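Acetoacetate decarboxylase: structure tokens wanted.
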Amino acid sequence: MLESEICKQITTPLTAPAFPKGLYKFHNREYLNVIYRTDLEALRKIIPEPLELDGEEPLVRFEMMAMPDTTGLGSYTECGQVIPVKYNGVKGDYLHMMYLDNHPAIAVGRELSAYPKKLGTPKLFVDSDTLVGTLNYGSLSVATATMGYKHEELDSKEAYDQISRPNFMLKIVPGYDGNPRICEIICTQHKDITIHGSWTGPARLQLFSHALAPLADLPVLEVISASHILTDLTLAPAHVVYDYLANN
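Answer:
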């Protein structure tokens, strides 16, 4: 293969790429979001500068996403923790950790962007009258979220606002000497969003301690609200907003 051809590739293995080129479009993407209050000091310890906590309340969003129809990536489920932050006056969400069950989605998220993705086994399903989200890491339970199924309609604008905020992520790529080769805060924002339906209802969230999936390090002190959203959207490309290596 010619050098000019090699330079056009975006991932390896060379003749069997881990993921195809985007755009990555999601059809009937389903969210279960539980917003909860956590320990302020625990939250401050994990938000990377120069991002700042947005507001006085120490809030976290536990999100579970079922994605049955994703261009180029197939069908998978994902969950994680999201923290409201601000950067240079822009309000958005810091993606703290994410667990999913699809290798192409893990690879593209980490390589082409900076989504903090690891392998896990999340599930989103309806159990009688309850919407349920669970996460296992290996064979152990890490999280269980429950919400009353479609108890009350949620305003579509509020649903849109929840999933359209800028996403901030920390990207670290080591060099061959063991030191960071890339160390950046990057930002992306979902676009082409269509809300098919949105609901709210009573919710609860349990997080279980695990050394390698430490969601419980941000403990649940009080559930504030919950939402169930069905949508189509397109994943937007990421861009650098802060380069640690250039500023230190």
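The mean pLDDT is 96. The CA atoms of residues 48 and 82 lie 13 Å apart.

Cheers.
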